[in-house]
Amino acid sequence: MTASLELAERALAAVRAGDGAQATVVGERSLMLRFARSQPTQATAVDDTSVEISVLRDGHVAGASTNGGTGDELAACAREAERAAEAAARHGEPGAYPGFPEPAGSRAHAGHDPETALLDPAAGGAALRQVFDAAASRGVDGHGIWTAGEVTTAIASTAGMLAIDRVTDAGLRVTCVAPGGRSGHAASTATATGAIDAAAVAARAASRASVRGEPKRLGSGDYAVVLECYAVAELLEQLGRLALNGLAYAEDRSAVSGRLGTQVAAPSVNLADSPRYARSLPRAFDAEGVPKRPMPLIQDGVAHAVVHDTRSGALAGVRSTGHALEPAGAPYGPRPTNMVLAAGGAADEAELCRPIERGVYVTRLWYTNPVRPKETLITGVTRDGTLLIEDGEVVAPLEDLRFTDTVLGVLERTQALTAQPTLVGDHGFYGRRFATGVVCPGLRASSMHFTGAVP
Amino acid sequence: MRDLLQDLMDGAASHADYADARFVDSIAERIATRNGRVEEVARSRSAGVGVRVRLGGAWGFAATRDGDRRSVERALDRALELARAQPAAPDARLVPEPPARGSFESPTGIDPFAVPVADKLDVLAAADDAMRGDPRLKVTSAHFLAFRDERLFASTEGALCEQRTSQCGGGIVAVASDDLESQIRSYPASFRGDVAQSGYEHFAGLDLAGNAPRVAEEAVRLLDAPSCPAERTTLILDGEQLALQLHESVGHAVELDRVLGSETSYAGGSFLSPADLDSLRYGSPLMNVTADATLDGGLGTFAWDDEGVPGRCVPIVREGMLRGFLSSRESAGTIGLDRSHGCMRADGFARQPLVRMTNVNLEPGDAGSLDELIAATERGVYMETNRSWSIDSRRLHFQFATELAYEIVDGRRGRLLKNPTYAGVTPRFWASLDAVCSAGEWRLWPILNCGKGEPGQTARVSHGTAPARFRDVQVGIA
Lengths: 455, 478
Prior knowledge:
The complex is a heterodimer of chains A (455) and B (478).
Chain A: H1 2-13, E1 20-36, E2 39-57, E3 60-66, H2 71-89, H3 114-117, H4 121-137, E4 141-157, E5 162-177, E6 183-190, H5 198-209, E7 221-227, H6 229-242, H7 246-250, E8 271-273, E9 295-299, E10 302-303, H8 310-316, E11 339-341, H9 349-353, E12 358-372, E13 377-390, E14 393-397, E15 401-406, H10 407-412, E16 414-417, E17 422-426, E18 436-440, E19 443-453
Parallel strand pairs in A: 7-12
Antiparallel strand pairs in A: 1-2, 1-4, 2-3, 4-5, 5-6, 7-19, 8-9, 8-11, 9-10, 12-13, 13-14, 13-15, 15-19, 16-19, 17-18
Helix pairs in contact in A: 4-5
Chain B: H1 2-12, E1 18-34, E2 37-55, E3 58-64, H2 69-85, E4 101-105, H3 117-131, E5 137-155, E6 160-177, E7 182-187, E8 194-196, H4 200-204, H5 208-224, E9 231-237, H6 239-251, H7 256-259, E10 289-292, E11 313-318, E12 321-322, H8 329-334, E13 344-345, E14 354-355, E15 360-362, H9 370-375, E16 379-391, E17 397-409, E18 412-417, E19 421-425, H10 426-431, E20 433-436, E21 443-452, E22 457-465, E23 468-475
Helix pairs in contact in B: 1-2, 3-5
């Protein structure tokens, strides 16, 4: 653990010029086992550490990174960052970056599991066998991933920051496919591999894929919906990127620009960024070393706050809230990474269905993308468990549907939520592993706008 | 490193049915201005070795940043450990391939990494300044990108080849906003601009500053433009949007790993099956699609893929009929092909290769120029520059939005329209293709953010297209 801090300090010491500097070390050790048709397909082990040096000059921050750790490699990286910062400073007016944050003392968390950090491939192999057995017992095939990882982040800066955080995460995602092509999905994410019940996850996915009957087709229109946690998490992730992003807010591109303090969702909607919530993937600080703290975003349906890094905060005239995704802030701005949507009172999704005369049960949303970002208007399709609700019960499978609706509109039309929130993890892991997740319950909305059936 | 990888593969041959190793050294540079200020100046370098083994039908892959003998041998051991830990899998055959030998370097006029940052900032600042002025413009941005990859590949079958490719480009963006909405315009392409396998000369030739006033003016005009009406009508797509249409509804659909179900849980499957080869009508007789890894300037151009298979030019669709898939040695063997189409590519050293697109192109037609195509269209909508995309997991039902549209009335561009969208179903949409512009309008367009695989991999690919016309398309969805 101290090796990462020492590396960060060595990298910082390599910087000779500028008005300040930050060195960020991120080490990843991870395993990812993929499977399809109830057979293993790929298995990837990664062991890599990157060093990013950010140099401040006249309000401009420039950076360079390397995954080499020798003295020569760190020196070369530092020279690159210095040259880049100097070039930026000589170009036009001073930059707006106010300086690297001072240390503020982050709190310890329980987001590291030593057993998970062992990265035992046998544990993954055993999970795959459980999935294949559960799928076979229902006559379906299993597709998905099992993954575990440990990420160590160390930051040293000329502002006095010297911080280290070590987290683990584990996940199993299963899509079962029946011989006729029906599919079902379930997943589990946690800080520890021991918390993943592979057989239970696979059984849930298999049961969804085994729903009997020929899929019915619904025409375009507005339908009452019950959204499982996976679908809710997808909507909230988009809300975080589009509307709760402090840079979009400061640049008047957010749906809540000028609307903080106003009603934007149903009174039952309470959304916070809660990095210490028991079922979340905790993190001690952001990419600038600013400590993570609980932060209400929507309270009783009223837009309360957006998240900031130092750069967006400077534009908006406020301090960073600890949501930087890159040192000195990502070009696309900050976003909440530990969102928790408060649970409601419904026992389960079946109870959510009861008041619905005719509607759609959605397990999961796929390929969502913004159509008109400032309105939070997005489109996407349902996937892996789209079902028809009639007279309060799920009665038949449906062909998947395309929806085109605003996220805030769905939250405005939210009527009820389940009592049990679930951590829905994002296991995409493009670039360096950065495990995040949304903790949310299922919800019922009085309507959602569907723009066509997917044949 | 050559000797090290060769030695590693000599040792691996007694432990694995097959193994390969790649040393990859990747450098990237990103420079951007935003609202007249320098926003980003960043250079990243990542180097290491990835070792892939096949044992009893299971793959194992391990990556290490350390290039010393002990570390790469440990990576080989770890890859073998992973392969052994998994449940048994059928031992599908890899189609034979002569061992790749040699070296390749993509043509690069001016090394983009040797040009001073200050010179690049001069170009970007001039373009950014030329967009600013109207108070409704909330964001103006100009950006530069450059990538260089050096790859050394060795296998237990005796392959040993190395290649070096450079890519460079950039673009500009203007975002206008009022109380209700925001509108965006980009040039030459959305989502980070136009990048080609080229040197700095490609970026220098984009004339960002010359196009900046038009881009800014169009973003502002869109705020007050009428919305694209909802109707079924004739649709003309510009080459840039058509490139993404081709990417999403053809390129991904013909990836053989998706067709065989290997990507079902994440990227998804395909509406195609192996039995559709040579029998499925994909589109109209005007539809001719080729996957060409040998094209000058393409982001999907290489001498060998990451299995050591030479870059090839293969037909995918001919006169509307499905004639080929994008394949690997394993997937080609699974459906009985005698050779891989050479489409295995990996994002850096720490990812194992996947079936990826090369340069998947719609061949030009004979409809003349874009202006001539519009003149030959009585009524419809012309859409330009992608803004948003979504397609279902089998690559059938899609919905796209573009940055702007013009109505077409009596063969002429009419009103500017905002918020244009269109939707369709892949084979029906391509069946409605009734005109493709001629070779003079054909060019490569980049896709810089193609995501696939777990852990996630981002690929950069190019698609050659010319503007084309489709009949009876649903537009104005939302």
